[in-house]
Automatic annotation (TrEMBL):
It is found in: Membrane. This is Stomatin (EPB72)-like 3b. It comes from the Eukaryota. The keyword Transmembrane applies. InterPro entries: Band-7_stomatin-like, Band_7, Band_7/SPFH_dom_sf, Band_7/stomatin-like_CS, Stomatin_HflK_fam. Pfam families: Band_7. The gene is stoml3b. The lineage of its organism: Eukaryota, Metazoa, Chordata, Craniata, Vertebrata. Its main location: membrane.
Length: 275
């Protein structure tokens, strides 16, 4: 039992490095002799170059030769036994096609987004998945539908950053075994049905009108209180009313009006009516 337990990790690491066996080593030795014999010609088949943003995963007789990918720069391969796959390490961005999603409160919306990802482990991206780029695109679409299906319409419209962060976390965890690092996820647009847009617009307009009426009513109430206080002050001092008349005349005269309406106190009119 102890030998089996200690042998497990070594077997797992040998899957990456690759144990060629006797026949494999014989073929490698023969290939090396062939390269040495035909050196001036075979050098063009042995020397390979990858760019700064690329890495090369080398397969020797169908097995990965090393835990670390080769590059950037020059590396050598055996023309008869080795093959390699280039992996691009640059960040790739793609648009998530618009998805018809039913929200938690039974509203149908169309949502699209954009995902930025890169290859963090070239060997895992080649050995663990057939097409890492295409698989990540499909997973992003399903993750978008799954995440937005748990949100209601208000959360979808107001909490886009939280939804994008949740999608990024789920995608990053799911693509970790593929050697993919999801750097950023953004929600681009949320399209609502036209009937729902008109209903929301009518609701917002009614809310604004109701708020305007409340504000106007509060203004009228405050104005009536101010007039009441002013009338009490004028009632206590009759001369204040005359001063108010003079102030009104001064304001009218400043506007250069040809007609001036001057109010008379009711006490003066009542005096003439008695006579």
């Amino acid at each position: 039992k102890k030998s089996c337990e200690t042998r497990g990790p070594t077997d797992h690491s040998s899957e990456r490095t690759g144990s060629l066996g006797c026949v494999g080593w014989i073929l490698v030795i023969l290939s090396s002799i062939f390269v040495i014999v035909l050196f001036p010609i075979t050098i063009w088949f042995c020397v390979k170059i990858v760019q700064e943003y690329e890495r090369a995963v080398i397969f020797r007789l169908g097995r990965i030769t090393d835990r670390k990918a080769k590059g950037p720069g020059i590396f050598f391969v055996l023309p008869c036994t080795d093959s390699f796959v280039k992996v691009d390490l640059r960040t790739v961005s793609f648009d998530i096609p618009p998805q018809e999603i039913l929200t938690k409160d039974s509203v149908t919306v169309s949502v699209d987004g954009v995902v930025y990802f890169r290859v963090s482990d070239p060997i895992a991206s080649v050995a663990n998945v057939s097409n890492a780029d295409f698989s990540t695109r499909l997973l992003a679409q399903t993750t978008l539908r799954n995440v937005l299906g748990t949100k209601n319409l208000a959360e979808l419209l107001s909490d886009r950053e939280g939804i994008a962060h949740s999608m990024q976390t789920n995608l990053d965890e799911a693509t970790d075994n593929w050697g993919i690092k999801v750097e950023r996820v953004e929600i681009k647009d949320v399209k609502l049905p036209h009937q729902l847009q008109r209903a929301m617009a009518a609701e917002a307009e009614a809310t604004r009108e109701a708020r305007a009426k409340v504000i106007a009513a509060e203004g009228e109430m405050n104005a009536s209180r101010a007039l009441k206080e002013a009338s009490l002050v004028i009632a206590e001092s009759p001369s204040a009313l005359q001063l108010r008349y003079l102030q009104t005349l001064n304001t009218i005269a400043a506007e250069k009006n040809s007609t001036i309406i001057f109010p008379l106190p009711m006490d003066v009119i009542s005096h003439f009516m008695r006579k």
